[in-house]
């Protein structure tokens, strides 16, 4: 039987989601907990990967188990797993899905947020990036609007990756103010490339500080090469917030 597990994590102490040969990952930590609780080796397949220091308010992974759990049993399993997990990983829920359902390949959209603040904040220093320059958010939103008209995001893809295509469909990309001095960039797409959001944010910050014009931002997109864009924004401001699936994959 196949199940989806919905969970969240603070990525500060992890080398990203995916297992690493020389560092602790969220995947490794969770697989060890699942294998202990279920009393058999249990592999988790995530909806994607997050880099070192990146957080997730919602992440999804699938796993297989011999038992056919009902809803009440899945709720109890989630409670047991949470008692076994470290404080920076939390299981939200576990649901049964079709045996062919895939956490990565069946996702129809993903949403990320990137948080920036213009002041020192002891409660946000792990979850937002401090920007000391004044930013022109109206200009940044004009540049961000070009992303929804773009299909090839090679300019914002990490070099030397094994992706077969750099085509993505961005349906939403916009900066908004959460509170004075605290802004968030929200972006939704059918898929994301490695380092894509951080590269986009880093380049938009150049627009916001008037180091780059809207026309230059558009030219960067058309160059289709990572060296054309700006530096990647720091990891701690990035948060995976939502993943959507078609209803038919749920049992």
Labels describing this entry:
Alpha-Beta Plaits; 251 residues; 2 domains; 5 helices; nine-stranded mixed β-sheet; alpha+beta
What does this structure look like?
The termini are close together. The chain contains 5 helices and 9 strands; from the N terminus they run E-H-E-E-H-E-E-E-H-E-E-H-H-E. Helix 3 (137-145) crosses helix 4 (196-208). With 251 residues, the chain is α+β, with helices and mostly antiparallel strands.
Quick rundown:
This protein has 251 residues and is an alpha+beta fold.
Structural class: alpha+beta
Percent helix range: 10-25%
* Mean pLDDT metric: 95
Distinct helical segment count: 5
CATH topology category name of the largest domain: Alpha-Beta Plaits
CATH classification class of the largest domain: Alpha Beta
Report the CATH architecture of the largest domain.
2-Layer Sandwich
- What pattern of helices and strands is seen along the backbone? EHEEHEEEHEEHHE
Number of domains as seen in the coordinates: 2
User: What is the terminal separation in angstroms?
Assistant: 10 Å
What is the approximate shape?
Answer: globular
Report the major sheet. Answer: 9 strands, mixed
Number of DSSP-assigned strands: 9
Which superfamily, in CATH terms, is the homologous superfamily of the largest domain? Pseudouridine synthase I, catalytic domain, C-terminal subdomain
Bin the strand percentage: 25-35%
Low-pLDDT windows of residues? none
Rg is 19 Å
């Amino acid at each position: 039987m196949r199940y989806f597990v919905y969970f969240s994590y603070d990525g500060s102490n992890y080398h990203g989601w995916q297992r690493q040969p020389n560092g602790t990952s969220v995947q490794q930590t969770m697989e060890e907990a699942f294998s202990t609780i279920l009393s058999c080796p249990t592999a988790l397949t995530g909806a994607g990967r997050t880099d070192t220091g990146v957080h997730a308010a919602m992440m999804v992974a699938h796993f297989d188990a011999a038992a056919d759990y009902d809803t009440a049993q899945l709720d109890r399993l989630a409670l047991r797993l949470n008692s076994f997990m470290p404080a920076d990983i939390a299981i939200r829920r576990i649901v049964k899905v079709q045996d062919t359902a895939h956490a990565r390949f069946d996702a129809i959209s993903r949403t990320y947020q990137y948080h920036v603040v213009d002041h020192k904040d002891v409660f946000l220093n792990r979850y937002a990036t401090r920007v000391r320059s004044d930013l022109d958010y109206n200009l940044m939103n004009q540049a961000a609007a070009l992303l929804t008209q773009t299909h090839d995001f090679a300019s914002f893809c990490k070099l030397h990756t094994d992706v077969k295509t750099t085509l993505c469909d961005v349906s939403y990309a916009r900066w908004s103010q959460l509170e004075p001095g605290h802004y968030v960039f929200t972006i939704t797409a059918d898929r994301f490339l490695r380092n894509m959001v951080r590269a986009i944010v880093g380049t938009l910050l150049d627009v916001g500080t008037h180091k780059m014009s809207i026309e230059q931002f558009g030219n960067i997109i058309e160059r289709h090469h990572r060296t054309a864009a700006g530096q990647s924004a720091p990891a701690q401001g990035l948060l995976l917030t939502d993943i959507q699936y078609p209803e038919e994959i749920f049992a």
